[in-house]
Design a protein that fits this description.
Layout lengths: L4 E6 L6 H16 L2 E6 L10 H6 L13 E4 L7 H13 L4 E4 L7 E6 H14 L6 E5 L5 H16 L9 E3 L4 H13 L7 E4 L2 H13 L9 E3 L16 E3 L2 H16 L9 E4 L1 E3 L11 H35 L2 H7 L9 E8 L1 H6 L12 E7 L9 E2 L2 H5 L3 H6 L2 E9 L2 E10 L6 H47 L8 H15 L4 H10 L12 H4 L7 H18 L5 H12 L19 H16 L10 H10 L7 H9 L1 H10 L3
Parallel strand pairs: 1-2, 1-3, 2-16, 3-4, 4-5, 5-11, 6-7, 6-8, 8-9
Antiparallel strand pairs: 10-12, 13-14, 13-17, 14-15, 16-17
Helix pairs in contact: 1-8, 4-5, 6-7, 9-10, 9-14, 15-16, 15-20, 15-23, 16-19, 18-19, 19-20, 20-21
Length: 662
């Protein structure tokens, strides 16, 4: 790894723009200082503790903390506190510094933003630069520590400037839009004179207040100034552009990596807390900037371009889904996936399946291990893809030198549907090039494709198990019927194999070959009600006895009539028609194509076995003699095409006859 040092990063919700921007800035700063980021990132914030949350958080179980020189937690977006605490504990036990962004945990470096100082500066700015005297303050939720702290700052700044604190000018907007509109409505309905300015404790409330004032005919900032706090992305596209204090990603990256450098050099204790100043932005809603139509147009053009990129990529993923779902196999996924990983700005992609999934798909796994199996390794620049191979977690996190050369960050994302954990995706990338919304689209698409593939594999396995049981049951039943005659022996087995050979030669699909092979075993099922003395009679049958024998075809059709499924439907047809002849002289007089092809095939297979087998009324013919008889009946007893297939595969008939002798 040379001089590179790996920082582990645990975060969620990376498709959200604020998280993405901070990760990008952190990655850029880390690269300058010779660090490599290995990011573990569920898309869920893990708050709801749903089945999906439980599966996604398993990505953190893959972490080898001893591989890292430090751990960075994005506690603000990891909404489940026990996960935060467990990750911090493991980092501390590994002896590495743990930096906790916008969170508070023991024995870690808790990094907070000093929004309160910025709030005080905004209020002072309104007083000194815009000469505001009547300033209303909209806090968040009543009793919330952040709300109460910011109310005290509001009171303090007014007092330091000699302004009275009027309690009627304090409202609560609960940190979101609808309550903020109600609080603004109360401000306007108050007996107090209209405010010069409304200072809001976050941007969401500031935007809501601006919109409500505009609806009521007030001009911002001409009639009332409005300010926010926090740097919400929406404010960048709002008119007027909201004056606020932003959490500056670049400054955060500099502070976090600088703090980490000091810790690793032994100059700063691991548990020293840090406050990052917010960046005040005085713009249109306070009157410090006039509305610039050109800037607005540029922002809208950029937004449109981004939307178009996301729309185009969404169309690509739909196409990808169609291709894979046509086959619904892991092979199809591995084949088409490399064509759809260019757009998000990735340098390399690895797709891993957990051992259980891999075993279900008959992929090579490490015996007695829960190690993942790599389904695909793809480098986007040269298009290389490696074969399917098992990987231990030790191998997985031992990063080769070329990984650092390709990209400064490695992102690991869980793949799951609800509580079904399929595996994970690792992405080598540059943070400033990746489109996280496209990445979200890609991962969600992969999740659904893997879910479809797994369901198909389970269904095929279940069907195979059912078919195996059905085949065994059918064969046993057919043998019970045939056992009424001591001379028939393995007739059922041989006829089914002869039928298989002919069906393959006639171009049947593998599924249809299997269907007719199993169904053929029941061709004589109707004999179950034929008296044994007639079946075993050594001499020629009387006309009356032959009429009794002929009833077995309709009796077989009757027995199978109400049985469900393709195999039983095929068996019913064969049972009824396998004594029909091509020229129409069979039991029921059907001829040519009136007779189903399945029945024409089984008719030849049945006759061949009767010819080469010992019967009460005859000795067995040789295979060659049976062949001669069947060829002689081409176009009279048998379908000419079926006879031609028989001639072409005659050596296989001989092999089956030799393999299953009576």
């Amino acid at each position: 790894m040379g001089e590179k040092k790996i920082i582990g990063v645990c975060v969620t919700s990376i498709h959200k723009i604020a998280v993405h921007r901070l990760l990008t800035a952190l990655g850029a700063e880390a690269e300058k200082h010779g660090y490599y980021l290995h990011i573990f990132a569920p898309f869920s914030d893990l708050y709801h503790r749903s089945k999906s949350d439980m599966a996604e958080q398993r990505i953190f179980e893959l972490i080898h903390f001893d591989r890292f020189c430090a751990l960075i937690l994005f506690s603000e977006v990891i909404k489940y506190e026990p996960i935060q605490e467990e990750l911090a504990k493991k980092g501390i036990e590994a002896g590495i510094p743990v930096l906790n962004i916008k969170g508070t945990l023991e024995y870690t470096c808790n990094i907070q933003y000093d929004a309160e100082s910025s709030l005080a500066d905004i209020i002072r700015h309104l007083i000194s630069c815009h000469h505001c005297k009547r300033i209303n303050f909209m806090a968040g939720a009543m009793g919330h520590p952040v709300s109460e702290r910011r109310i005290e700052i509001y009171r303090s700044v007014l007092k330091e400037n000699g302004y009275p604190v009027e309690e009627g000018r304090i409202g609560y907007g609960d940190f979101w839009r609808m309550p903020a509109r109600e609080a603004a409505k109360e401000f306007l309905a108050s007996d107090l004179p209209l405010p010069d300015a409304i200072v809001c404790a976050n941007d969401a409330m500031g935007i809501a207040v601006c919109d409500y004032l505009a609806e009521r005919g007030f001009h911002v900032p001409g009639d009332i100034i409005v300010t926010g706090l926090g740097g919400l992305q929406e404010r960048e596209y709002h008119l007027p552009l909201l004056t606020t204090a932003i959490y500056d990603p670049e400054e955060t990256g500099r502070v976090v990596i600088g703090q980490l450098d000091g810790m690793l050099r032994g100059e700063i204790p691991f548990d020293q807390d840090v406050a990052i100043p917010c960046k005040n932005v005085y713009t249109e809603s306070c009157g410090c900037e006039r509305h610039d139509k050109k800037k607005t147009d540029n922002r809208l053009v950029n937004l449109f371009s981004m939307t178009e990129l996301e729309r185009a990529y969404r169309h690509n993923t739909y196409e990808f889904t169609t291709y894979v779902n046509t086959e619904t196999t892991l092979q199809a996924l591995a084949k088409h996936f490399p064509d759809y990983v260019r757009e998000p700005g990735l340098a390399g992609v690895n797709l891993y399946l957990n051992a259980e999934f891999a075993a279900l798909a008959d992929l090579p796994v490490i015996s007695g291990s829960n190690a993942p199996v790599i389904l695909l390794k793809h480098i986007t620049e040269d298009g290389d893809s490696l074969p399917l191979l098992p990987r231990t977690l030790d191998e997985l996190w031992t990063l080769p030198e070329e990984t650092f050369d390709n990209a400064p960050q490695l992102l690991t994302i869980p793949l799951n549907i609800l509580d079904e954990f399929f595996g994970f995706l690792t992405l080598e990338y540059h943070g400033d090039k990746i489109l996280h919304e496209c990445l979200f689209e890609l991962v969600m698409t992969l999740n659904h494709l893997l879910d479809n593939i797994k369901k198909r594999m389970v269904l095929l396995l279940t069907n195979q198990q059912v078919n195996d049981v059905s085949e065994q049951t059918i064969q046993s039943l057919a043998e019970i019927v045939e056992a009424k005659s001591e001379f028939t022996g393995l007739h059922v087995k041989r006829v089914s194999e002869y039928t298989r050979i002919l069906a393959e030669a006639m171009g049947y699909s593998p599924d249809d070959v299997n269907t007719i092979r199993i169904a053929s075993m029941m061709h004589d099922i109707g004999k179950i009600n034929i008296p044994a003395e007639i079946l075993e009679k050594p001499g020629k049958l009387t006309p009356e006895e032959f009429d009794v024998i002929k009833t077995h075809i309709k009796e077989g059709e009757r027995l199978l009539r109400n049985a469900p499924g393709k195999i039983m439907e095929t068996a019913k047809t064969i049972a009824l028609e396998h004594h029909e002849k091509w020229d129409g002289t069979g039991y029921m007089g059907r001829k040519n194509w009136e007779i189903h092809l399945d029945s024409r095939i089984v008719a030849l297979a049945d006759v061949f076995d009767a010819l080469v087998s010992k019967r009460p009324y005859k000795k067995p013919f040789s295979d060659e003699k049976a062949r001669e008889i069947i060829v002689g009946d081409r176009g009279s007893h048998f379908d000419p095409d079926v006879v031609d297939a028989f001639v072409d595969t005659f050596d296989q008939f001989q092999e089956i006859h030799a393999k299953y002798p009576d």
